[in-house]
Write a structure and sequence with these properties.
heterodimer, A: 115 residues, mainly beta, seven-stranded mixed sheet, 11 strands, 0% helix, 50% strand, globular, B: 118 residues, six-stranded mixed sheet, five-stranded antiparallel sheet
Chain lengths: 115, 118
Amino acid sequence: DGGITQSPKYLFRKEGQNVTLSCEQNLNHDAMYWYRQDPGQGLRLIYYSQIVNDFQKGDIAEGYSVSREKKESFPLTVTSAQKNPTAFYLCASSDRGQPTNEKLFFGSGTQLSVL
Amino acid sequence: GENVEQHPSTLSVQEGDSAVIKCTYSDSASNYFPWYKQELGKRPQLIIDIRSNVGEKKDQRIAVTLNKTAKHFSLHITETQPEDSAVYFCAASGMQRPPPFGGFKTIFGAGTRLFVKA
């Protein structure tokens, strides 16, 4: 373990509430990613960021927001607009500067549930 | 948009037998194809990868093949063991935007749950 850290491990959201998932990495990686994992659907890309102060929408960005103010941090906010937020959320990072920079390093995940 | 199809969704084999998982991708720009293994309650871990300029790669009991023309790639596990039981994800990755903000976007298949019976 270590390298990329997600917190909390479990999170509960009340209806109408925004919640923020933390992702921190000390690998000096430029790129960071957020994936959502639902049973039987694999990993779906929510947002990704290749460099500080820049990020792009993935395939299921609606109801989510991100920021990338620091290289080591890429927090994900699940807003009240996300009507089905219950899922396992995985953060990942990769090093843009290496030949094999597509290799993803994953955090241990956050399980979000709705109360 | 980009899509990766993975089959089968569930695979059960006897210990010592081989297991094969197949994937197809849609984005012609994809040039890197990793496979990740996720054990129950743990994070996905890279087990093997292949680039588009290579047709086959082997690492001990696991091998991956790529047919870029047909946009197919497969994972082969030989002499399976109970500890191989996990969910396996294929993925396809390609450059999305040019520098300085350019980078790779990785699209995953839906996963295959492999059971190895002792």
